[in-house]
Here is the input.
Amino acid sequence: MFAQLIQDPPATAINYIQNPAAPAAIDEFGQLEKLASTFHHVDGLFYFTYAVCIFFFVVITGVLLFSCIKYRRKTFDQPPASNTTHNTPLEVVWTVIPLIIVMVMFAWGFKGSLDMTTVPFEASRNMYKASAKQWDWTFSYPNDPAVSYGELWLQVNKPAGFLLESKDVLHAFYMPAMRVKRDVIPGRYQTLWFEPTEIGDYHLFCAEYCGEGHSTMYTKVHVVSEADYQKRPWDVWDDSTPAAAAKSGRSLYDRICFTCHSLNGTPMTGPSWKGLFVKGPDGKITGGQREVFVGGQKQTITVDDAYITESILKPDAKKAAGFQNNAMPTQALDERRIKGIIELMKSLAETN
Amino acid sequence: MSHDGHHSVVIPAPGPEFQAHTVAHHFDTPVQEFQAAKLGFWLFLATEILLFGGLFAAYFYFHEMYPETFRVGGQQLDWKLGALNTTVLLVSSWTMAMGVRSAQTSQRKKLLMYCGLTVLGAAMFMVIKIIEYKAKFDHGFLPVFGGLGYDGATGQIAWFKDYGGVMAGVPHGHIFFAIYFTMTAIHGLHVIIGACLILWIMKGAAKGRFHAGYFLPVDLVGLYWHLVDLIWIFLFPLLYLVP
Amino acid sequence: MTTNVPTIEQHPPAPAARKNFWNVSSGFMSWAGTLDHKRIGIMYLIGVSSAFLCGGLFALLVRLHLWEPHGMLFSNETYNQIFTLHGAFMVFIFVIPAIPGSLGNMVLPLMLGAKDVALPRLNLLSFYLWCAGTALAILAIVLGGFDTGWTFYAPYSLYTNKAVVSIGLGIFMLGFSSIFTGLNFIVTTHKLRAPGMTWFRMPLFVWALYATAILQVLATPVLGITVLLVAFERIYNIGIFDPRLGGDPVLFEHFFWFYSHPAVYIMVLPAFGIISELVSVHSRKPLFGYKLIAFSSLAIAIISFLVWGHHMFTSGQSTYALFAFSFLTFFVAIPTAIKEFSWVATVYKGSIALNSPMLYTLAFLIIFAIGGLTGVILGALNVDIHLHDTYFVVAHFHYVMMGSIALAFFAGLHHWWPKMFGVMYDETLAKIAAVTIFIGFNATFIPQFIMGSRGMPRRYATYVPEYAPFHQASTIGAMVLGSGVALMVYYLVASLFQGRKAMENQWGGVTLEWHTPTPPPLENFEEPPIVTTEVYDYSTLDLETMRTPAR
Here is the structure.
C-alpha cells in the first residue's frame, strides 16, 4: 500500500468539490445549519441539551479552578481544608436532579423520533425512491417515468416520502439541513420522510462508510417552487444533435461514471474511455480494438454501440483485460442516456 | 525462582505411588490455590458459553427468519446418529465424573481407566460425527471439499451444491447448513481439545500426580468435559429435533 | 508497630542494597518467561505505548490529509486504510489493553497486598496473545492493509479485497488476551486480598478494574465469535451476514455492538479508577462518596450491556427498541455524573498539589465533562438521527477515548512512574507537556464538534469546501497535540537514563503500593501486609517517606 502513499489528489474528488451546493446558511445560534424542514424539535432539544451541558460544564470547571487556586498546597505538609467523605443530601440532589433532566430529554427526543419515523399520509402519497450503490444515487419520482442520477429535485412545502434501497453495501441517506438520516441496507427497504420548507440547494451525503468513493457519493438536492417542479427539471436530456447528446452524456459522467473511469487515458478502477473509439484519417469515427474476458476466455473485439450498451447493462458479460478482477455495478440507464454516453465516448476519439 | 526465604506449602503424597504437590509460591494455603483456580475456570466456562451464545443467537435469528428452511434442513440430518452421539457423550460425562471421584479417593488405576473410557467416548463421538459429515458431503452440503467462493453471476456458492435439490423449494437453503456446520465444527473442536486435556491428565495420573490431597487439574478438566457435553445437549434438539 | 505508618506492620528495612524486581534476575529469558506481574506490566507498557505512537502517527497523517477539501496526501483508497489502521490500532491494540495490561498488572496485586496475580501463567499467556494479535494486525498491513473502518461493518467487510481475515483473527486473539486479563483480576480480587483488606477497604482503582474485568469476561467472547463468523463468511460464503445469500448485515451490527458498547466501558472504567486514586492522593483527602463511586462502576458495567442499540438509531430498529435503548442510555448518564461530581467534591477543600499527575487529572476532569455531556446530547433519539455518523460523534468519542482515557493513562503513568522505575522525570517539562496536550487536544476536537453539528459526515477522504476552516483548525490542533506527546515521550525516556532517584513515597499515597520499597521487591512486600485502617486515611501518612530517596 505504501507504493501509492503519496500521489496527486484524485481527479474524482476535485470533480465533485467543484460543484457542490452553496455553503449552508447557519442558524441564529451559530451551531447548526439553518433548518430547512419541519423537524423543529431536533433543534429545540439540541439547544436545550446544549444549554444544560454548558451549565454543568461551567459549574464543574468553576469549582475545579476555584479549588485549585484557593486550596493549592503551599507547604509540603499542608493538610486538606476539610476531610468530609460524604454528604448524603448533596449526593441525593446530584443524583435526582440530573435524572429528572435526562428523563425530560428522553421523552422529548422519543416524541421527536416518532414524528420522524412515522411516514404521514401526505408523504406516503408522494413517495420517491432513492436507490444507492457504490458510489452514487438514482432517484425515481412519484408517478413519473424519468429518473435522475446524482441530483434530486423536491417541491417546497410538500411532504416527501422516500423508499430507500441499496444494491450492494450499507449506505446512509443524510441531509443535514433537513435533519434526516437513515441507513440504507441491502436486502431490505427503509423509509424516511421530511417536508422541505425553504427553496434552495442542499447537500445529500452518504453517512455510512461504503468504500473508496464514500466521500464522493454526493448529491445536490434542489428544493424548488411548485411552478418550477411542474416543469420536471430532472427530465432535461438534450439529444437533438450528437454534440448536444455528448454534452448531456458528460453531465451524467460528472455525476456517476467519474468515480471509476477517466476521460484522459488514466486507468482507474475501470478502464479509461479514451481510445474506445478512434478517428480515421478521413475523420470517420470507428470502434477501436479491445481485449476482453468472456467467461474467463480472452478475446479481442471491436468496440461498437452494442458492446458499450452491454457493458453498461451487464458489466460482467465482457470484462476489459486488466480490469477483469474489478466489479462494476449494473447501471440501469435508459436508451437515450446510453446513447448520450456513447456520443461522449465518440467525442473523445482522436486520430492515431 | 527466588523465594526470598519464604517456604512454599507442600501437600504430602498419600502413598509411595503418588507425588507430593507444592503449592504455588504466591498462595498462602492449598485451599486458596484450589479456590482461585476453580473460580478462574468457572469464569472461563462462562466465556465459552457466551462464545456459543453468539452462535445460538444466530440460530434463533435465522430460525425466525426462514422457518421453512430449518424445517426441511433439519429433516436432512439423521436424528438417530445424533441421538447415538448424545448417548455416547452422556456416558462419557459419567465416566469423567467417576474419574474425578477416583482422583479424590486416591485410586490411581481407576482414574486411568475412567479417563481412558472418556477418551474412547470422545473418539466414538468424532467417528460418528465424521460418518454424518460424510453423508452431508455426498449430498453436496459440506464446505471443505467443494471449493471456496461465490459466483455473483450464477448465484452459486461453491460449498453448497445440493445435488438432490432437496433444499431447492425453500429460501436460502444453505443457511441451515452454514449454521449446522459452524456450530458442530466448533463443538467438535472442543471435543478434540477436551480429549487432549484428558490424555494430559492420564499422563500425570500415570506418574501419580493426582490424589486426595491434590486433584485440581482433574476437577477442572472434568468441568470442561461436562461443558462440552452440555453444549451438545442444546445442539442436538435444536438442530435435529426442533425443525 | 510504629505510630506514623499504622496501615501495615513494618520492620526496619535491611541496610544492604535492596533486591527489587528489576535487579533480582537478568537475561532475556528472565523477562520473556517471567511470571512476575510487574515485569509483565512493564512489557505491556512498552507494547501498548508503541501501539499508541503508531496509532498517533496514523492520526496525524489523517489530519494532514484533510487539510485540503480534495485531500492533500493520499488516494481515497489509501486514506481509508490509514483511518482504519488508526482506529484499529488505537481501539484494539492500545486502549483496551492499555490500562489493565500495564498499570493494572503493575499495581493491582500491590494494592491488594498480594504477592502476584492469582494465575501468573495465564497472565503471561495473555501478554503473548496480545503480541500474536498485534503481529497479525501488522501482517494484515503487509498483506495489503484493510479499509473497513475499525467497526468491520458487513457487507463491505465481506466484499473488500483487503486482508480482513488476518486482522479478524488478530482481533480474536486480542479479545482472548483481554478476557484472560479480566479473568485473572476477578480471581485475584476475590482470593488474594491481604488479611484485613475488606471489599470496602479496596482502592477504587481495584474496584474499577474489577468492574472492567466483569465486562471483559462477559462481552468479549461475543466479539470473538463475530470476527470468526466474518472470517468464515469471507472464506466459505456461509451467508450469515451477506445479504446476497439471505444473511442480515444488521445482525452483524447487533453482534458487534453487543461487545463494542461494553467495550467502551472496558476502556473507560479503568480510567475512572486511576482518576479516583489520583484525585484523592494529590488532594490529600479521602475520596468523596467512596461507596457511591464503587457501586456506580458496577452499575455502569451492568447497564452497559443493555444500551448497544444506541449505535444503531438510524438502522431502522422498531419503535420499542428505540424506546428501550434511548431510555437506558440516559440512565448510564447518572452513575457517570455521580463520579464526576464526586471527584470535583474531593478536590474542593483539599490540599491540592499541582504536580504533573494532577495536571493530567485536572485536564481529564474538564475534558471528560465535555465528553460525557456531549454523550447526553447524542442519547436523545431525534438529535442523534441528525448527528449520527458525523464529526460530532467523532469528537465526542475522542473526548472520551483520547481526552479522557489516554489522559488518565498518562496521569497514571506519571503517578506510578517513580514507583515502577524508582526514578523521577523532569517535572517542569512534564507540566509543559500536560498543558500543551490539553490545549492541542481541545484545539483538535472542538472544531470537529462544530462541523459535525453542521453535517460533516465521518470517514470522508474528501469534503465539500465549506468545512475546510474547521478541518484546518483541527489539523493545527493535532500538530500541537502531537508535539506535546512527543515531548512527553522524550522526558519519560530520558528519565530512565539520567533521572534522579524518586522518593520512597513520591506523592504521599497511603494505599498499599506505597507501603513497600520503591521499586518493589519480587514478592512485592518484605513482610506480608496486614490492613488495619480504612482506605485513603491520610492521617496515617508518614511525611518522611516523601523525603526519603528510594534505594
Remarks:
- Chain B touches chain A through two residues (CB under 8 Å).
- The CA atoms of residues 2 and 25 of chain B lie 10 Å apart.
- The longest strand of chain B covers residues 10-11.
- The radius of gyration of chain B is 23 Å.
